[in-house]
């Protein structure tokens, strides 16, 4: 018992040391960023709000970056400790503070967009301040021990991630840029509405990532067999593809709830669903890059996805507007998933992803038919056929799950009856 407590205490001290050393580089990088934002406040204001008079919002945004860094690292600390409830509650708290401050500001001040901007930033800062105050123990003086070797290793790992993230950010916004240049605000509005529908799957993607990352690291440290990772990957592929198809089946109801004015969004959102779908799946198949700490490979992945996105947006947006942008985005995220998976499996023992690829092809064809096929009962029939095909691919997994449920139910029934 004493040994276990000592190990737990040692691990906690190690994590705290890692946390404060990891904070050092982002904090140092924030100083020139804040300085530049404040010095060029009028230019930043014009770039963000199409008007150079909102420099106060730029100053506030600059200061909020410090709070955002603390938020990011503290939430990571909570997540890596597998405190799912605390992680969720603090995330909800931050969003709740934004909501409260926004409502108060709209009641007191003029209800214009800049009021919402100020209230959002201040609400975020208040939520982050509460988070920081409740975790001050992590930043006590004795907790900080500068480890130059550790900082160098963190920088060596993190800098390629920064570059890859920057490239990925371009990849994320490129569709809106092409729509703004080649189309009009109507097309951009339809695209945004369609993206909101696809965001239903995004909730699952974020929730899964928050749970999966610390679990995967823990399994790797315990040297769990590859079949554990494979099982999780197949379960997620099955679950998220079923949700994808259900969204297609419910598209009429969704558009009715959203607004009949966004009728065309039902032709756009299927391809945008590949964003959360492929991001979720890549979290389960890129483990080789993660475990072996070859973060520089993410640069190759992001560059490949960006290239696919640029080519397809340049080709399709002038022809099909928001539909073309959606196809380009969905296809680029599939390319992102394939690149991440192939590279990861080459450097790690890995597992078979044939079913993943086959399901992706089925969903892609279904999305094409939903976008360009006749809008009648055949679309719903095609969705049901695709669902049956996917369930058929995973029939062994479903059968095994059903058998386990029956065994557990039987054991529970025997226990309740008092039969030994």
TrEMBL record:
Domain of life: Bacteria
Record keyword Cell membrane present: yes
Transmembrane regions listed in the UniProt entry: 20-42, 54-77, 89-109, 115-133, 154-174, 194-213, 234-259, 265-284, 296-317, 323-343, 355-372, 378-399
Topology class, membrane: Multi-pass membrane protein
InterPro entries: Poly_Biosynth_Transport (IPR050833), Polysacc_synth (IPR002797)
Keyword field: Cell membrane, Membrane, Transmembrane, Transmembrane helix
Pfam family, one: Polysacc_synt
Localisation per UniProt entry: Cell membrane
Protein known as: Polysaccharide biosynthesis protein
Source lineage: Bacteria, Bacillati, Bacillota, Bacilli, Bacillales
């Amino acid at each position: 018992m004493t040994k276990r407590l000592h190990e737990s205490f040692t691990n906690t001290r190690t994590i705290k040391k890692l946390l404060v050393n990891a904070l050092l580089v982002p904090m140092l990088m924030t100083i020139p960023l804040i300085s530049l934002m404040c010095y060029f406040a009028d230019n930043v204001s014009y770039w963000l709000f199409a008007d150079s008079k909102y420099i106060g919002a730029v100053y506030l945004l600059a200061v909020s970056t410090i709070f955002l860094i603390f938020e990011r690292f503290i939430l990571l600390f909570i997540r890596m400790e597998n405190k799912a409830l605390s992680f969720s509650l603090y995330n909800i708290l931050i969003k709740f503070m934004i909501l409260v401050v926004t409502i108060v500001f709209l009641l007191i001040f003029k209800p214009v967009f800049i009021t919402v901007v100020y209230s959002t930033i201040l609400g975020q800062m208040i939520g982050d301040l509460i988070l920081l105050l409740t975790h001050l123990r992590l930043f006590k003086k004795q907790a900080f021990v500068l480890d130059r070797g550790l900082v160098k290793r963190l920088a060596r790992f993190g800098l390629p991630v920064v570059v890859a993230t920057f490239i990925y950010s371009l990849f994320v916004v490129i569709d809106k840029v092409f729509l703004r240049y080649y189309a009009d605000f109507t097309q951009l509005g339809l695209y945004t509405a369609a993206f909101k529908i696809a965001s239903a799957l995004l909730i699952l993607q974020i929730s899964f990532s928050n749970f999966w990352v610390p679990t995967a690291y823990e399994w790797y440290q315990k040297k769990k067999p590859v079949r554990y990772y494979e099982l999780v990957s197949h379960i997620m592929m099955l679950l998220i593809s079923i949700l994808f198809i259900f969204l297609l089946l419910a598209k009429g109801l969704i558009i009715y709830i959203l607004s009949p004015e966004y009728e065309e969004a039902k032709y756009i959102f299927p391809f945008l669903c590949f964003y959360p779908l492929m991001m979720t799946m890549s979290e389960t198949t890129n483990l080789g890059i993660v475990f072996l700490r070859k973060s520089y490979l993410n640069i190759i992945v992001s560059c490949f996805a960006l290239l696919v996105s640029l080519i397809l947006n340049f080709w399709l947006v002038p022809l099909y507007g928001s539909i073309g942008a959606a196809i380009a985005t969905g296809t680029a995220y599939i390319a992102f998933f394939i690149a991440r998976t192939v590279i990861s499996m080459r450097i790690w023992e890995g597992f078979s992803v044939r079913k993943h690829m086959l399901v992706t092809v089925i969903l892609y064809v279904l999305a094409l038919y939903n976008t360009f096929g006749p809008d009648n009962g055949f679309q719903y029939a095609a969705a049901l056929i695709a669902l049956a095909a996917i369930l058929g691919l995973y029939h062994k997994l479903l059968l095994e799950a059903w058998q386990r449920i029956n065994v557990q139910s039987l054991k529970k029934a025997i226990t309740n009856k008092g039969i030994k």
